[in-house]
């Protein structure tokens, strides 16, 4: 699984300094022709964890949701390795991927686990929308990590062009959105408002996420198709990944 930060900060990504690819991306088969795209639809995985309004019930919800995601993606990822959840202590507010202290709840990939900090915002929430969207979006980085997509994205050449680098990163994050839609479909989640699902927390926002319209389009595309092959952002036109 990819162990680099997947937040996409400008400082971390300025290391790409070689020849730029033509757009859409060329010469990177792990991105454009990944074996994952040939996989069938994800199986329907019954998944209805209940989030109460206690710390214990919220943690239990997260654990069960991750278990559902393990079962949903195992059939389509070669040599799949089940992912575990590690809950952070309440006093530990530091994000492993940014180094920042975050006051509320959050989830992220740290090495080979999903690290989760559960705070009052998730605990007191009357519904599970924030928890579900955070965990399922984080899970998309598990997919890119275990299929070689994350590593291939990280290694992309950009000719020291900021514009090319930015587009590469948007392709990556829009694919994350699309995989989120695929996961939601597999788990039988009924999504009535994709704007809520695609909303990025303030502390993760950056210029690499793409326009609101494109984020909605890729999320909905993944959801409608229910299969990873609908999420090949690497061969899409530049307009579709703006």
In short, what is this structure?
By secondary structure, the chain is mainly α.
Categorize the overall geometry. Answer: globular
Our measurement of the CA-to-CA distance between the termini, rounded to an integer number of angstroms, reads 27 Å
H-E order: HHHEEEHHHHHH
Which oligomeric state applies? single chain
What does the secondary structure layout of this molecule look like, with pairings?
Elements (H helix, E strand, L loop, with lengths): L9 H4 L15 H4 L22 H19 L10 E4 L18 E5 L2 E5 L2 H5 L4 H18 L2 H6 L7 H25 L7 H5 L13 H14 L17
Structure report:
- With 242 residues, this protein is mainly α.
- The protein has one domain (14-241).
- It contains nine helices and three strands; from the N terminus they run αααβββαααααα.
- It has helices spanning 10-13, 29-32, 55-73, 120-124, 129-146, 149-154, 162-186, 194-198, 212-225, and strands at residues 84-87, 106-110, 113-117.
- Strands 1-3-2 form a three-stranded mixed sheet, covered by helices on one side.
- The radius of gyration is 17 Å and the shape is globular.
Question: What are the key terms here?
Answer:
242 residues; mainly alpha; three-stranded mixed beta sheet; globular; disordered N terminus
């Amino acid at each position: 699984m990819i162990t680099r930060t997947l937040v996409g900060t400008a400082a971390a990504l300025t290391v790409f300094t070689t020849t730029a690819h033509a757009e859409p991306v060329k010469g990177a088969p792990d991105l454009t022709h990944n074996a994952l795209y040939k996989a069938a639809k994800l199986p329907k995985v019954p998944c209805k964890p209940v989030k109460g309004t206690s710390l214990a019930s919220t943690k239990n919800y997260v654990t069960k949701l991750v278990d559902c995601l393990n079962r949903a993606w195992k059939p389509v990822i070669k040599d799949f390795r089940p992912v575990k959840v590690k809950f952070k202590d309440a006093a530990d507010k530091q994000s492993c991927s940014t180094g920042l202290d975050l006051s509320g709840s959050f989830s992220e990939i740290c090495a080979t686990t999903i690290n989760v900090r559960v705070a009052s915002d998730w605990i007191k929430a009357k519904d599970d929308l924030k928890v579900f969207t955070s965990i399922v979006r984080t899970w998309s980085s598990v997919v890119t990590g275990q299929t070689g997509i994350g590593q291939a994205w990280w290694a992309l050449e950009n000719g020291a062009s900021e514009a090319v680098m930015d587009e590469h990163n948007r392709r990556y994050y829009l694919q994350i959105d699309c995989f989120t839609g695929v996961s939601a479909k597999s788990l039988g989640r009924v999504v009535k408002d994709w704007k809520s699902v695609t909303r990025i927390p303030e502390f993760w926002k950056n210029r690499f996420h793409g326009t609101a319209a494109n984020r909605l389009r890729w999320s909905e595309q993944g959801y409608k198709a229910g299969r990873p092959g609908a999420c090949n952002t690497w061969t899409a036109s530049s307009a579709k990944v703006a």
